Amino acid sequence: MERTKTIKISIPEKQRIDIYLKNALSISRGMAQKMIKNGNVFLNKRIVRLYHTKVKQGDILEYIENVPEPQVIKEADIPLNIIYEDDYLFAINKQPGLVVHPAPGHMDDTLVNAIIGKKIKRENFLNEVTRLGIVHRLDKDTSGAMVIAKDEKTRVLLSEMFKRKEIIKKYNCLVYGVIDQAGKIQTRIERDARHRKKFTAKTLYGKDAETVFRPIEKFFNVTLLELNLITGRTHQIRVHMNYLKHEVLGDPLYGDRNKDIEVVEFLGYDKMSVDDLIPRQMLHSREIEFFHPILEKRIKITADLPPDFARLLDMLRKKQEKLK
Fold first, then answer.
1. Residue 41 and residue 305: Cα distance in Å, rounded?
2. Identical topology for domains 82-164 and 169-290+316-323
3. Which DSSP letter does residue 110 get?
4. Which CATH fold would you assign to the domain 82-164?
């Protein structure tokens, strides 16, 4: 869990920002430099990129800190759609609206609450906080396939596979506009200096991000895409589609409300129906494929589209058919 803290600098003389952070937060200089490297430090509303940047009296310094997750995790009776399971791991088709980890506002109604004590046991993990068997995540309103480890050994092996990019992750999404050809997006992604909950690809800094996409179906002003994530940055697909000006339909952070309304009106409804027809970002984790680290066999897990995504897609198909 993250939160932004603000400091108004009051030191009498200029000082390197990594040294200031070290002294102000009682952390090591290496830790201060890591915060800067990760794009989590801002000086007067601009991202700090250099460790030797000087701060002076009157400057406003902001930094993003990770707040420890709550230690007590309550069990919750939340239905899950299990689409694969063996003795070492299982996979779900996550429903939209389900948060993965406990955080303020969602302490007892998350995926972790749903699996603890049922699909996984605390004693099988060294980390008894909130991660447990979670090795990757989906945003709250992104649906689809997620793999979860049942024990610490499997969790570590899967986590290492994700880091080495050995796990194939394919998504489906509905984006605004017509995309005729397959392509690849290669950018860097970092936190947006103006909107801290957002990330941006309009930068020369940050972390490398690569997304491969190809059109599956095309409508008058909407395209159904299949995407393969080569890297796994926060909000990567949503940021990359925004970067291309082909925003994911229904995306509250990176989308365009007017474009959503245009799609709804194309379907024959007024703009008041937009929240009903496009209730969330139309992004779905369709497939995960990997070599099972314990059973030593290839596993491919496929998650069907949820009702809201399938309904909108069906409406687009029917409308397009009438235009022929």
1. 39
2. yes
3. S
4. Pseudouridine synthase (3.30.2350)
Question: Of residues 59, 108, 109, 139, which has the active-site annotation?
Answer: 139
Residue 46: how many other CB atoms lie within 10 Å:
11
Could you confirm whether 139 is annotated as catalytic?
yes
Domain map (residue ranges) of the chain: 2-66, 82-164, 169-290+316-323
pLDDT, residue 280, reads 97
The fourth-level CATH superfamily of domain 2-66 is RNA-binding S4 domain (3.10.290.10)
Q: Which helix (H) or strand (E) holds 288?
A: strand 283-291
The class (CATH top level) of 169-290+316-323 is alpha beta
Residue type, position 201, single letter: A
**Can you name the residues that pair with 54 across neighbouring β-strands?**
16
Return all residues near 144 (Cβ < 8 A) that are at least 6 apart. Answer: 93, 94, 138, 171, 284, 285, 286, 303
Query: DSSP string of 205-266?
Result: SSEEEEEEEEEEEE-SSEEEEEEEESS--TTHHHHHHHHTT-PBTT-TTTS-HHHHHHHHHH
Backbone phi and psi for residue 85, each to the nearest 5 degrees, phi listed first: -160, 140
Q: Going by DSSP bridges, is the β-strand pair 143-149/283-291 parallel, antiparallel, or unpaired?
A: parallel
Residue 35 has pLDDT above 80, yes or no: yes
**Residue 120's pLDDT band (cuts 50, 70, 90):** confident
Amino acid at 156: V
Tokens (6 digits) for 23: 């002294």
